[in-house]
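Example record used in the benchmark description.
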Amino acid sequence: MIYRPLYVDKIMAYVDTPFVKILTGVRRCGKSTILKMIMEKLQKEKNVPADRIVSYRFDSMEYEDMTAKQMFSELKGRIGQSGKTYFFLDEVQEVSGWEKVVNSLSSDYDTDIYVTGSNSRMMSSEISTYLTGRYISFRIYTLSFEEYLTFKSQYDTVGDVKKEFADYVRLGGFPVTHLKKYTQEEVYTIVRDIYNSTVFSDIVRRSQIRKIDQLERIVKYTFSNVGNTFSAKSISDYLKAEQRKLDNETVYSYLEKLEKAYLLHRCSRYDLQGKEILKTQEKFYLADVALRYSVLGYSEETVASGLENIVYLELCRRGYTVYIGKFGDSEIDFVAERQNEKLYVQVTQEIRTEKTERREYERLLQIKDNYPKYVLRTDLFADGNYEGIKTMHIADFLLSKSF
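Model output (structure tokens):
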């Protein structure tokens, strides 16, 4: 196992607290492995005996028809006679009513509980009902660029950071694709299987969707328009042009299902002058750039939006709430807020003309506050600041310890 301190250290801070620790995220982002890392640390660093660490994987056929009552009886029978029992419940959403079981175990017994899940049942109203004030949630993402370099160093030589970043943009960050050296096609085959299992298990089967072709067309439209503002109406119009009629409400329903399966992230627009979140023309970003390439194929023309997607995910990993900034008629790629911190980011693949350069910087110069402002790019440029705006290569930004 390759250690992922970004998550493990955060979760370990809550060991032996009265909170249920809930890990969520897209399939195969590494949740199960992180559970194993925590179990290992409990034994090595906290001296917890192995017999007091109880682990279940509920997506196993063994538990396919398990009821909440059966689950409670099974887990209750594993509670030790003395000392705290540590439960690690993987893909727990497969058992309907698991929230009641976990609530009872955490309230009535000396336990410390960790659960993972890959779909909307993990964020449902039932959790709020049965675990109000008793849980803390951790969103797990695919590998950051820094984590990608760590994984690659286990089986290959890590070269120039800029070249490695170009590979990261092509291959994405699903951990399972970086445990050994795979070809690009092999990576996309693995990711396509992750995509298919997510769509058909977590969306089609669970929501009993009959018109699968409609869902797939919406997926392809959304994946093709990563980083572009669009609305349900624009999707409806696109489908209408293909003689596929679909009302706005159905489109929104499909988009919501893709979000709840953690394939998509919705990014709202924020009016920097009116200080309000706008309800129209949102953007969507993918859980990993490799999802787009595995479904639609890779092309150089899609790299620019992929870069934006990567920066968005990195800001989320670091705990920022991220918006698209609207300032008059201008758009700022990202406005990121975290407690009392704020930063503004423009992302561009390259700047070829003086006019383009002026446009990228002027958008940020309009904002008259003292929060950090960045222009991130991947071409050759002179390092430094321009009227207080910092210019960085995207790779350097992703590897920086603070921003």
